[in-house]
Amino acid sequence: MESLWALVWVLGINKNFKVDEPVGDDLIQMVPDVRKTQNFTTLKAKTLILNEKEIYQQADFYYRVHWYCVDTRLKGGKLQ
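Request: output the structure for the sequence above.
Response:
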């Protein structure tokens, strides 16, 4: 789920991608239902791929947040 959520952010479909919020309830409406053989025309029309720098910065931020959580847990601390 989280990977698909990140993908729709990279494609510019989801503008709300924050570290402290869960995957949105509207994720399923953002992508075509391939079981119903919906075409990708609508999806393609909605996409605007973000630039590499923005993607890299967000990925780096999430990596650092994840590492902070792991490091804190390994040291027996509490997340703040």
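The helical segments are 2-10, 27-30, 41-46, 52-74.
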